[in-house]
Amino acid sequence: MEIGRIKDALEALVIEGEERLDTVVEHVYASDLMSDVLAFGRPNSILLTGLATQQSVISAHMAEFRGVVYVRGKKPKDGSARFAGEHALVLLSTDLDMFEACLRIDAAWRGGLASAQAVTHDARAHDLLLSREFVIAGSDFTNAGMVSTEIKSILRKIGFDPKLVRRVAICTYEGEMNVVMHADNARVTLAVSPQAIDVLIDDEGKGIPDVELALQEGFTTATEEMRAMGFGSGMGLPNIKKNSDELEITSQVGKGTRLQMRFRVNGNPS
Q1: Pick from 269, 203, 260, 215: nearest CA to 242
Q2: Looking at the predicted structure, is the pLDDT value of residue 27 above 60?
């Protein structure tokens, strides 16, 4: 697909590379984690990201991408445009979030611009089966909460009841903060069906020695530094248990913890 078609589908602003909109890309890669871009991205791709820094452009260049699309209206303010011009990259900015941008690009690829712009409305009119994966980095307090925010945005776009979305968001955020505070990293899987929303957080870290104790309100192993930042009151796992319909916790000391959360949709049985 030509980058120009992507620009039109996303109603995007060209930051750099107007003369290169006829460049053809073979893949789209959406991520805010540049290490993942370098590890898994394919040449001749375009990157969708909310990371509006020069590192996103440098990473795209190193991975042999052809351009970068900044979502949520973001625009880099450093030397990104100059670097992109020097290395023949196209930079775009769209007001859409990551989820809707991906949907529109897919729709444009399958059936043209008209279906791309209507994709959100079409999606709400049908039963959906959606699966997405995210990565959380331990000790990354700067970006803590971004995965939960993205998941909340996805569920709101689909059109789930706001009370249900709120419960999912609270549980996901509590789980994300536990990873940031206590683990090395984690994979988060969101699975959506007409019957249920499932969130799996699978981390690598020190694990939980006593799960039942950790589920008690007020119990915490947070450091004073974490407490000073407003985290670690001992309500994380209790909050997850309170707001989820089903919760399964498995943990192995020295290896990590797995949280499996299920939220039933409209009272449907799981």
Answers
A1: 215
A2: yes
